């Protein structure tokens, strides 16, 4: 297995303006993981837990406060020259959450896909370009070449997200970061999209970072899962192991909140009337800074958080 | 069967454009009884929100209600004159809109937003209205001191609960919820829906619940309608939809529910949580 991307003890502190003072906010508190070719890692957590900040640091939209991001062993946070950055962006691409906001409404699909092809392969002939465009549509299962002349408003959310994916794949990246790629799509389309990600990951040997708040979808795409809370990874390991034997309370909280059609709220309210108190308590506890990870099973680790700190946090 | 609280009969809604007429809701029948939670599930564009807007007669051109009627108890909603319609909205039927957490005015403190609604719809004095607002905040478990905050100082889940509280302050008999939790993460979603369920048992109201998340709907609703292209394809109890779906499209939606392996699982929590208290 080749390690493509390695994230090492990433820290990110933002200064928030509060009145006249600036208050530090620790968005990332020591995040580490690695991505392998042909494998996917699901980064799971609620909004505000730092999962998108992680993506933004990796894509160099933010400078990290501390820590390193290594691509093939080379630290990319030190890349400065235009050329080096361009090469890095060719190896690493991103698909964003909002399929409506991430396409220019005044431009056709052809424009969106031609740009990355031209930017990274300036010598491309017109006929080759057309071939590549059609191949890209084929790849993301948008079939009909007539799609090339459509505009974003003429397409459904699912089709637009496929165009976004094609745009990202146009430069043949090694690493793909997908930030909540299905959360704005209808449930019925979500599955097709996840299957497409899985297929492409295998075919193109992509290292995929799948960022989501929905732990139930992680197993359709990702071999490994990391659960994040308040800027720390609280539990990580093979997806099946994390889901079947969750050992951090926050992971259990996430899993227990997945809508279960077989149990009505009438039953749940009777059985777990203290759900909200427990959820608050777990969130409080999970906020404590952790030092090291405890081994749960092969490759499966859980963050150890100081109990004294938990008590302090509760007071 | 007793007289339903709300009865929609043969309702059609058309969007009229220069080129043609698009029928968004096509001859839909729907009843909601007292204290019942009825769900409408379907993909975006299937007409479920359009149907919800019709109940409050909120449509503006180019949308027109072209057929059918809506009866709320003995009143025909579509025939109400403007003044009575204003009383009917919020007093009798409340609505929590999609991304409701953004429907609070960002530059007005939360207590003011309670007062606006209460003044427009009741004769309460300022003091009585404030007391009402405080009661409602307690009802949704938010500290009363938060009334002096601006919306942006509260988390998304909290804002959602505040919108619920404002809606409940007028004690409507029916609340329409259009994708109330779509923008929230799963834990907060579960907290809010469980709370609505408890409030419903305490206060007694009916809910028309709209979402594209069928799994959630099956947990929350007594009866469920599956909508597609403006029609209700299938209407049944949650048991019927879950175990005896009749329509191929319903089966397709059921198959698309993720996390099947998690269903029916029970959870063991770490001991420290009790110890820590």
Automatic annotation (TrEMBL), chain A:
SUPFAM superfamilies per UniProt: P-loop containing nucleoside triphosphate hydrolases (SSF52540)
GO molecular function: ATP binding; ATP hydrolysis activity
Signal peptide: none
Annotated ranges, domain ABC transporter: 5-255
InterPro entries in alphabetical order: AAA+_ATPase, ABC_transp_ATP-bind, ABC_transporter-like_ATP-bd, ABC_transporter-like_CS, Oligopep_ABC_C, P-loop_NTPase
Record's keyword terms, sorted: ATP-binding, Nucleotide-binding, Transport
Name of the protein described by the UniProt record: ABC transporter ATP-binding protein
The species this protein was found in: Natronospirillum operosum
UniProtKB/TrEMBL annotation, chain B:
PROSITE patterns reported in the protein's UniProt record: ABC_TRANSPORTER_1 (PS00211), ABC_TRANSPORTER_2 (PS50893)
One Pfam family here: ABC_tran
Protein topology in the membrane: Peripheral membrane protein
Domain spans labelled ABC transporter: 8-254
The reaction(s) this protein catalyses: Ni(2+)(out) + ATP + H2O = Ni(2+)(in) + ADP + phosphate + H(+)
EC number: 7.2.2.11
Keyword set includes Lyase: no
Gene3D superfamilies for the chain: P-loop containing nucleotide triphosphate hydrolases
Main localisation: membrane
Record GO cellular component, one term: plasma membrane
Alphabetized GO MF terms: ABC-type nickel transporter activity; ATP binding; ATP hydrolysis activity
CDD domains named in the record: ABC_NikE_OppD_transporters
Compartments where located: Cell inner membrane
Swiss-Prot/TrEMBL keywords: ATP-binding, Cell membrane, Ion transport, Membrane, Nucleotide-binding, Translocase, Transport
Coiled coil: none
Stated family: Belongs to the ABC transporter superfamily.
Assembly notes: The complex is composed of two ATP-binding proteins (NikD and NikE), two transmembrane proteins (NikB and NikC) and a solute-binding protein (NikA).
Protein name listed in UniProt: Nickel import system ATP-binding protein NikD
Organism encoding this protein: Natronospirillum operosum
């Amino acid at each position: 297995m080749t390690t493509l991307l390695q994230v090492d003890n990433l820290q990110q502190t933002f200064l928030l303006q509060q009145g006249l003072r600036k208050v530090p906010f620790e968005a990332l508190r020591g995040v580490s993981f690695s991505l392998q070719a042909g494998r996917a890692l699901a980064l799971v957590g609620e909004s505000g837990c730092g999962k998108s900040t992680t993506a933004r640091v990796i894509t160099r939209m933010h400078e990290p406060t501390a820590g390193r991001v290594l691509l093939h062993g080379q630290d990319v946070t030190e890349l400065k020259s235009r050329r080096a950055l361009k090469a890095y962006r060719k190896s690493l691409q991103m698909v964003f959450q909002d399929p409506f906001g991430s396409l220019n409404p005044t431009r056709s699909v052809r424009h969106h896909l031609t740009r990355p092809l031209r930017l990274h392969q300036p010598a491309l002939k017109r006929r080759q370009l057309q071939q590549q465009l059609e191949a890209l549509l084929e790849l993301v299962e948008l079939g009909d070449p007539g799609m090339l002349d459509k505009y974003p408003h003429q397409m459904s959310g699912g089709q637009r997200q496929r165009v976004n994916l094609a745009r990202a794949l146009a430069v043949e990246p090694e690493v793909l970061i997908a930030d909540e790629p299905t959360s704005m799509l209808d449930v019925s389309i979500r599955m097709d999209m996840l299957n497409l990600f899985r297929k492409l990951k295998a075919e193109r040997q992509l290292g995929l970072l799948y960022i989501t708040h929905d732990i139930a979808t992680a197993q359709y795409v990702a071999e490994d899962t990391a659960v994040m809370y308040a800027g720390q990874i609280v539990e990580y390991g093979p997806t099946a192991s994390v889901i079947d034997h969750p050992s951090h309370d926050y992971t259990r909280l996430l899993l227990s909140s997945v809508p279960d059609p077989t149990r009505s709220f009438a039953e749940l309210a009777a059985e777990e009337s203290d759900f909200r108190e427990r959820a608050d308590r777990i969130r409080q506890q999970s906020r404590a800074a952790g030092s090291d990870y405890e081994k749960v099973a092969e490759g499966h680790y859980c963050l150890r958080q100081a109990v004294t700190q938990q008590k302090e946090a509760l007071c | 069967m007793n007289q339903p609280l709300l009865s929609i009969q043969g309702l059609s809604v058309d969007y009229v454009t220069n080129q043609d007429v698009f029928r968004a809701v096509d001859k839909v029948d729907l009843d909601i009884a007292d204290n019942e939670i009825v769900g409408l599930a379907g993909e975006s564009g299937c007409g479920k929100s359009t149907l919800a807007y019709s109940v409050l007669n909120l449509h503006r051109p180019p949308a027109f209600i072209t057929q059918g009627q809506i009866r709320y108890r003995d009143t025909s909603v579509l025939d109400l004159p403007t003044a009575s319609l204003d009383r009917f909205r919020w007093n009798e039927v409340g609505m929590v809109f999609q991304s409701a957490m953004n429907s609070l005015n960002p530059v007005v403190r939360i207590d003011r937003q309670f007062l606006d609604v209460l003044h427009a719809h009741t004769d309460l004095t300022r003091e009585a209205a404030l007391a009402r607002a405080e009661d409602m905040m307690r009802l949704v478990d938010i500290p009363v001191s938060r009334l002096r905050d601006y919306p942006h100082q509260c988390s998304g889940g909290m804002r959602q609960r505040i919108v619920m509280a404002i809606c409940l302050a007028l004690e409507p008999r029916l609340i329409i919820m259009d994708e109330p939790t779509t923008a929230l993460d799963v834990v907060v979603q579960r907290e809010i829906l469980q709370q609505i369920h408890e409030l419903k048992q305490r206060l007694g109201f009916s809910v028309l619940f709209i979402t594209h998340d069928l799994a959630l709907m099956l947990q929350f609703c007594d009866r469920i309608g599956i909508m597609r292209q403006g029609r209700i394809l299938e209407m049944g109890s949650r048991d019927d939809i879950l175990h005896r779906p009749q329509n191929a499209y319903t089966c397709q939606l059921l198959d698309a529910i993720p996390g099947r392996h998690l269903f029916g699982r029970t959870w063991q929590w770490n001991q420290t949580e009790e110890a820590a208290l």
